[in-house]
Amino acid sequence: MCGIIGVVGSSNTLGTLLEGLERLEYRGYDSAGIALVRHGHTWRARAASGTESVAALRSECASAPADYPSGIGHTRWATHGAPEAVNAHPHLDCSGQVAIIHNGIIENHVELRAELVERGHTFTSVTDSEVVAHLIEELRAQGLDLLEAARQALLRVRGAFALAVMDCREPDVIVAARRISPLVVGTADGATYLASDVPAILDRAQSFYAVNDDEIVRLTPAGFMAIGLDGAPVRLRQLHIDWDLETAEKGGFDDFMSKEISEQPDAVRATLLDRRRADGTIVFDELRMSDDELREVKRVVLVACGTSHHAAQVAKYAIERWARLSVDVDIASEYRYRDPIVEIGTLVIGVSQSGETIDTIQATREAQRRGARVVAISNVVDASLAREADAVVYTRAGLEVSVASTKAFVAQVAALELLALRLAQLRGTLTPAQVDLHFAQLTSVPGHVATALAREADVKAVAAQLLDAHDYFFLGRHVGFPTALEGALKLKELTYLHAEGYAAGELKHGPLALIEPGVIVVAVATDPVMHEKILSNLAEVKARGATVIAVARDEDTVIDAVADFVLRVPSVDAMMTPMVDIVPLQLFAYAVARGLGRNVDRPRNLAKTVTVE
Ligand code: G6P
Q1: Is 16 in the pocket of ligand 1 (CB under 6 A)?
Q2: To test the ligand 1 pocket, which listed residue (302, 354, 379) has its Cβ within 8 A of the most ligand atoms?
Q3: pLDDT confidence of 380, banded at 50, 70, 90?
Q4: 65 preceded by a cis bond (ω within 30 of 0)
Q5: What is the 3-state secondary structure (H, E, C) of 207-266?
Q6: In testing the pocket of ligand 1, which one of 260, 261, 303, 308 has its CB within 8 Å of the most ligand atoms?
Q7: How far is it, in rounded angstroms, from Cα 103 to Cα 91?
Q8: In this structure, are residues 127 and 140 in contact, taking their beta carbons and an 8 Å threshold?
Q9: What is d(CA 292, CA 128) in angstroms, rounded to the nearest whole number?
Q10: Any atom of ligand 1 within 6 Å of the Cβ of 257
Q11: Is residue 49 packed enough to be buried (19+ CB in 10 Å), middle (13-18) or exposed (0-12)?
Q12: Ligand 1 nearest atom to the CA of residue 607, by list position
């Protein structure tokens, strides 16, 4: 995800910005840029050299002026437009006087851009962000100061933003605002800072303040004042930060795993942003595949590995139910060597967090060789899988550091379900009202994920009682089955305990023989249609002495009769349950792993990205 930094009143603006950007590199990025501002002039440099971009920017800045007291800087994680220097921030207005940096997504950028072009503005990038520079340019021309111009511009913007704007006619001022994407302000003697993350300004600022959603701040060397986007004054909450750099990079969490688990509402929210036009059409700006091509799809094959394979398995249920297309899900390493059948109209979807997993890339290459059209679902912009595919949909979970995948999974499910809705729309297999309903259900998922996260203490309490256990079976039906597989995988990866996921209906075809006292059975029991069947499965294992943990809906009043422990989750539509139900299972694996003293971020023997077959 993009990182932003800004400073007013510095004696070393360039150093502050470059060092700050280096400290934002850990978030992942593909290009970087800065703008230095003094009265009447803006000096800008940008570089797009992938993960070397800040180093390249440093070289570009060898000739930068040393005496500019203010500036802004940005590391970009491309969403709209390729990771090229022209799309790197800061973006300027037509006059070159207004400079902006932005983290987030402007959902109505297409309409705003059309309107601005109509009024004579010239755009130099294909980003969504640049519209804000031009909107502010117009409002400045009407005589508004920078704060008011930015405020009025942002009232026209839909979507997510942590945004900072400068104008060389007011060089001692930065205006910054936030909606959804994080933003902090820092103060020190004679200088004021802003950043998307504390690490960027940790060793410069002395006091830190959090900007809330829909608040806008005016920074000057003497300090800052804040108002709401409605114009009413607000007070920023001071943050008590006694972190070292390592803790700051983890956002104050003990490890990346817990940070990433906690970021799941945002991962889903960001993946859903700007995907639906006002007329209800689901759109993917980056897809590079026409509606006609998608309409011609006769069969879908999903290929993936590990956690991504589980997200793909959820997608099978969604695409079959909503788009009425037949779907196969393959383990990528099996697909390639199986002499797969690719008929006309076969769409192969390669799902990967990293976009670099060799088995998945080889499987999609094989599919292309046999004539299939390939869509990549990737969390990394311009990753090999995305580059080689005919089309791509990006999940926007942000950089995932912890080896075991968490937030990428929920983002993948959200992206794949969106794709399922688009296919349904094009094929006419759902009515517009049904598509609207499912889209609304998807947009409610982040809130429900947050509720599930808030119940971590309940999960910890259960985990604390089971630290002696060695054998786990995870059961589920329908989309609860891939959820159970993913829950088992998390437990295996993080704790090194034996854990197996099973379709609950398969229980009596083998695994039941292994059930005895001491075995833990974890059941995903949230689907009301499948509920009675799951209850009978649980009665069967309980009768044989297993300890039962059930993930169950808040409203479920009968589950207590068969479960020893119940992990409650809010009720959502069945197709949305994997994104919510996985939360207690991740938290459980995490709590057991911590209880056993495991390294949760770097489990033994495992790699984050597997680039060998
Ligand atoms: C490795 C990681 C897993 C991940 C899998 C697939 O095994 O440890 O967390 O799910 O690779 O990775 P991908 O990047 O293709 O999603």
Answers
A1: no
A2: 354
A3: confident
A4: no
A5: EEEECCCCEEEEEECCEEEEEECCCCECCCEEECCCCCHHHHHCCCCCCHHHHHHHCHHH
A6: 308
A7: 12
A8: no
A9: 26
A10: no
A11: middle
A12: 8
| Average pLDDT of span 129-156 | 97
What does the pLDDT look like over 396-452, one tens digit per residue? 998 888 999 999 999 999 999 999 999 999 999 999 999 999 999 999 999 999 999
Active site residues: 2, 608
The response to whether residue 404 sits with its C-beta less than 6 Å from ligand 1 reads yes
Rounded Cα gap, residues 578 and 415, in angstroms: 13
Which ligand 1 atom is the nearest neighbour of the CA of 357?
A: 15
244 Cβ contact partners less than 8 Å away, ≥ 6 residues apart: none
Q: Give residues with Cβ within 8 angstroms of 176, minimum separation 6.
A: 6, 162, 163, 164, 165, 183, 185, 194, 211, 216, 217, 219
Alpha carbon distance, N-terminus to C-terminus of the chain: 29
Cβ-contact 598, 496 below 8 angstroms: yes
C-beta of 427 in contact with ligand 1 (< 6 A): no
Residue type, 1: M
Once rounded to an integer, what is the mean pLDDT over residues 479-485?
A: 98
Contact predicate 127/80, CB 8 Å: yes
What percent of the chain clears pLDDT 70, i.e. is strictly above it?
A: 100
pLDDT-derived band at 585 (thresholds 50, 70, 90) equals very high
DSSP letter for each residue of 379-414: SSTT-HHHHHSSEEEE-------SSS-SHHHHHHHH
Average pLDDT over residues 527-542: 90
Q: Count CB atoms within 10 A of the CB of residue 188.
A: 16
Decide whether any atom of ligand 1 lies within 6 Å of the 523 Cβ.
no
